[in-house]
Amino acid sequence: MKVRPSNRISEVKEYYFSRKLKEIARLKVSGKPIINLGIGSPDKPPAPSVRSVFNQEVQKEEGHGYQSYYGIPELRRAFSDWYQKRYSVSVDADTEILPLIGSKEGIMHISMSFLNPGDEALVPDPGYPTYQSATALAGGENRLYKLSADNGWMPDLEKLAQEDLSRVRLMWVNYPHMPTGAQPTTSFWEELVAFGDKHNILICHDNPYSFILNPEPRSIFSVPGARSCCLELNSLSKSHNMAGWRIGALVGGEEFLSEVIKFKSNMDSGMFRATQLAAAAALKLDDEWYEELNSMYRNRKEIAYQILEDLGCDFERNQAGLFAWGKVPSDYEDGYALSDELLYQSDVFITPGGIFGTQGDPYIRISICIENDQLDEARNRVKELIKTKNAVV
Ligand SMILES: Cc1ncc(COP(=O)(O)O)c(C=O)c1O
Fold it and tell me: What does the record give as cofactor (predicted)?
């Protein structure tokens, strides 16, 4: 190639799912009946009322031009009312909410706005891979903090506090945690905010799973004083079946958001007005929406747990979020080995836990964004594989 890519881009690889989904597509074209239990993209549509708002808006003569960089007031107000109703947290619609094209872009925006070369970001291992990529692309350095089943997948803040944190600017935190589905103890939130405050670290809480199989949705801003050192990303991707619509928000104090807007307003323009109004309608949905969604996911999660059981994996029940996470039996080298065996011998794709960090190596993650009959079929194939293997032994 005559034009060399930037040094920055060599810091990251193509996203794992971007590569793996290509391979799965190729296997499907070659006739393999793959069941994909990989990615957490809700398979059901948004509520009919949400879609009809979009339809009506699209038909209008107006509303097709550029939109405000800050999001339209109707959407900011809807996010603010939603925070009040769902988390009992009050946020100013004019100054403390910045609508985003999904929370993924917010991770990049925050990293670009608060990291200088040489600055460190504390990143969970295992955790959402985008935190590490965004840090690297922004020129920062990833400092992994290890999570493990032994401490409920929570950071050891006391241990971290004993280390040299002078270069740390940001800490990424995500509860309910992806990929493990862990929820922290109640006292954790207060301890986390105190940690950020004491060490001048911006705590960035990524909160897209708070309404999925989580009996107590929580915003970090329910902790007094969190405004001075915390940001929160939220998203309609999982909670409102709107992953493809690309709608999220950054919530936090005005002083932080005004820095992020400097970056974002140079990168993109406001989202399509019809999308924003539909999102506002989604945020106004009543309890029934969340109850129905969760009752569907509860059934699916049970089947996913049964698959883990059949595979001989060790796992906790009551995992929040869109996945079932389990530790593979010791006769497999790691989660990659089990994932490959299932893909190539049973046409079932399950994510190896190692893509979320080395702490995830001995684990696999099953998505429940798929109909019960497909999950049942995946389970049958798993049982068949085990039967065949046992017969050989
Ligand atoms: C922990 C976590 N954060 C953020 C995202 C991205 O969400 P969004 O669709 O809002 O960009 C995901 C998506 O899978 C996720 O698992």
Answer: pyridoxal 5'-phosphate
